Amino acid sequence: MKKSAHTTLIFITLIILPLLISKSNGDARDQIIRKYCDRGFVQENIKLFVENFIRATEIASNEMQVSHVAKVVVGTGPNTNYLLTQCYSHLASQDCRLCYSQIRTTLSTCFPRIGGRIYLDGCFGRQQNYSFFEEYTGPNDTVICGNTTRKSVLFQESMRGVVYNVVGDALRNVDYFARGEALVLGTNDSVYVLAECWKTLSPSSCRACLENASRSITTCSPWSEGRVLNTGCFMRYSDTNFLNPRPTTSISSNTGRIIIAIVVSVCTFVVVFTVTLVSVLYIRNHKSKQQKRKGSYDQAEKMAKILTEISVKFKYSSIEKATRNWDECNKLGEGGSGTVYKGVLLDGREIAVKRLFLNNKFRAAEFYDEVNMISSLEHKNVVRLLGWSGFESESILVYEYLPNMSLDFFIFDEIRGKELSWEKRFKIIIGISEGLVYLHENTKTPIIHRDIKTSNILLDLRFRPKIADFGLARYLQDNKSHTNIPIAGTLVYMAPECLAHGHLSKKIDVYSFGVLILEVVTGLKNNRSTTTDTASLVSMAWNHFQQNKAEEIFDPNLMMHLYTHTNYQKEAIKAIQVGLLCTQEDPSLRPSMSTVLKMLAKDNEPLPAPSNPPFMDENAMELNEITHKLHQYFNSDNSCSIATVDHSQFFPR
Ligand SMILES: *[C@@H]1O[C@H](CO)[C@@H](O)[C@H](O)[C@H]1NC(C)=O
Ligand SMILES: *[C@@H]1O[C@H](CO)[C@@H](O)[C@H](O)[C@H]1NC(C)=O
Ligand SMILES: *[C@@H]1O[C@H](CO)[C@@H](O)[C@H](O)[C@H]1NC(C)=O
Ligand SMILES: *[C@@H]1O[C@H](CO)[C@@H](O)[C@H](O)[C@H]1NC(C)=O
Ligand SMILES: *[C@@H]1O[C@H](CO)[C@@H](O)[C@H](O)[C@H]1NC(C)=O
């Protein structure tokens, strides 16, 4: 009892407190105010549309790392995607990224509608199939008033005055942004105002938009809160302060540093500094965060229990030493949620360190999910978690290090590809399917990995495969086997039904595994190119297989070997056939992973002929097929939002 309370304290100090403290430096303001999805559906080519959409959000992701606005156009013709995302200027860049990830998540739930827009308290995003960048007014312009408190006449007058000033300031500022606040005379009340135009507007459009907004917002008098969501601008007033601290007043970041100093110097007196931090926290969050804190606390307790049950806690300083202070040269890779480094512990053990930046609650939830999931896994073909560590706003997962990199490093390389003989490759395929059978069938709650691809298959010294990166994995709950999820994973490995509906089922992994088999046999990437003249790997394999010419697509690195051993050749053709069975468009026709394993490993296991190829090239997904899909979608959910929005990670890394 005592021990677990103690661990909880340590845990809260290390992980949850920093979250709350770092949060008080700014706020991503990623609450959704309103979302509009268009009425029209994607008509021409769903797959191309989705590819363009995902590509556009990827480009925007990169731009939003360095700037507060992204204007992106991807594709040509009717499937062109136009995307605008913008954070309001009072957000720090880190908060902007968080707000943006909310845009990306939520916009993707408009699919298969042709477009949509979303207003949040900290940012705005819009995606269409036409160039809307100069639009500043439209029928969906809205004013939303909060009606909780009726304000005094003095307040209403102050509000009008500040709105007037802020509009003038915004028009003078190059970034089309202004903020204002005023104390209401004779009261303790203040009024806070923010206005911002989209940066793609001309000055005269911005003026028209803000002038309209300032007229609309005054209709919210006498209420305490008003927001205008215009086509070209955003405006808000409130009697509570919703403006992030200005970056120049760095009081809070100093406090942050002082707290870090305390943590470093009094490290041993855990209880002492916990009390210090708790009191700091209490003062800071006393009023508004009571409920939030309770949630975090419950979660912290749960997690502390899991962590102590399952794994070793590493000292932060020893992890720092092991990675030579996060030396760039030790970087193994970078993903959506963090960076992976190689490290060597003092005892000589090699480790892979995943460094996650946890700067708000949903990142913490993600960390919790990943730890919770992998800590319970134990299989020779699943990468092993050795322990964890945490400090400040970082959380760290320590894995076994696998020296041979990942599968893609070999099979797509002309020279290194020679190191993987057919025997090795076939063993790798078998090993991965064993790992997947374990995840799907042998654990208490089935786990869907959702991002099976060659770069997530790590190889040990003897080229034994291990499935890694559970950042996107989800438990499959019995009663919700068809939960709608936002589009996640890596596009070329993604099952078509996942593109169209976001259905979560084991067959998603089976599809990705099928693509992976074909890649291992052919040494080719499944680049579903968007130009119509190059067929995808899956359709190429399908065509060759149908014409009994499967051997023509073997990896040239394997040709000699396969031609001189008829047994191997049979095996390779069988692998292609299994790959095609796994990539059939109808998920119900795809075999389960245990059937796949049987087909591969047993010599006389009967193999059905693949009958239902995935949509093969850009034009092959026929119109009635699409209409059917849309109809299904439409009937299952009349609104354009998808029922379960998952707030974690979304798109391909
Ligand atoms: C306005 O919103 C509705 C749905 O909320 C949508 O169907 C319509 O296309 C939107 N209009 C414009 C011009 O965006
Ligand atoms: C955008 O999509 C809608 C609905 O599918 C379609 O009616 C319209 O013509 C498209 N616009 C362009 C410019 O392709
Ligand atoms: C105020 O809000 C409540 C619910 O929050 C709603 O029932 C009521 O109709 C609103 N009143 C006005 C005047 O908007
Ligand atoms: C302003 O606040 C002080 C202390 O918080 C309180 O005593 C006073 O009554 C308030 N004045 C008004 C006008 O609300
Ligand atoms: C603002 O513009 C919208 C769209 O043109 C219009 O419907 C609305 O009446 C305008 N509001 C005001 C207060 O002028």
Automatic annotation (TrEMBL):
<dbReference type="GO" id="GO:0016020">
    <property type="term" value="C:membrane"/>
</dbReference>
<keyword id="KW-0732">Signal</keyword>
<protein>
    <recommendedName>
        <fullName>Cysteine-rich receptor-like protein kinase 2</fullName>
    </recommendedName>
</protein>
<feature type="signal peptide">
    <location>
        <begin position="1"/>
        <end position="26"/>
    </location>
</feature>
<dbReference type="InterPro" id="IPR017441">
    <property type="entry name" value="Protein_kinase_ATP_BS"/>
</dbReference>
<dbReference type="InterPro" id="IPR011009">
    <property type="entry name" value="Kinase-like_dom_sf"/>
</dbReference>
<keyword id="KW-0547">Nucleotide-binding</keyword>
<dbReference type="InterPro" id="IPR038408">
    <property type="entry name" value="GNK2_sf"/>
</dbReference>
<feature type="transmembrane region" description="Helical">
    <location>
        <begin position="258"/>
        <end position="283"/>
    </location>
</feature>
<feature type="domain" description="Protein kinase">
    <location>
        <begin position="326"/>
        <end position="616"/>
    </location>
</feature>
<keyword id="KW-0808">Transferase</keyword>
<dbReference type="InterPro" id="IPR052059">
    <property type="entry name" value="CR_Ser/Thr_kinase"/>
</dbReference>
<keyword id="KW-0812">Transmembrane</keyword>
<feature type="binding site">
    <location>
        <position position="354"/>
    </location>
    <ligand>
        <name>ATP</name>
    </ligand>
</feature>
<feature type="domain" description="Gnk2-homologous">
    <location>
        <begin position="137"/>
        <end position="242"/>
    </location>
</feature>
<keyword id="KW-0418">Kinase</keyword>
<keyword id="KW-0675">Receptor</keyword>
<feature type="domain" description="Gnk2-homologous">
    <location>
        <begin position="30"/>
        <end position="132"/>
    </location>
</feature>
<keyword id="KW-0677">Repeat</keyword>
<keyword id="KW-0325">Glycoprotein</keyword>
<dbReference type="GO" id="GO:0005524">
    <property type="term" value="F:ATP binding"/>
</dbReference>
<dbReference type="Pfam" id="PF01657">
    <property type="entry name" value="Stress-antifung"/>
</dbReference>
<keyword id="KW-0472">Membrane</keyword>
<dbReference type="InterPro" id="IPR002902">
    <property type="entry name" value="GNK2"/>
</dbReference>
<keyword id="KW-1133">Transmembrane helix</keyword>
<keyword id="KW-0067">ATP-binding</keyword>
<dbReference type="InterPro" id="IPR000719">
    <property type="entry name" value="Prot_kinase_dom"/>
</dbReference>
<dbReference type="GO" id="GO:0004674">
    <property type="term" value="F:protein serine/threonine kinase activity"/>
</dbReference>
<dbReference type="InterPro" id="IPR008271">
    <property type="entry name" value="Ser/Thr_kinase_AS"/>
</dbReference>
<keyword id="KW-0723">Serine/threonine-protein kinase</keyword>
<dbReference type="Pfam" id="PF00069">
    <property type="entry name" value="Pkinase"/>
</dbReference>
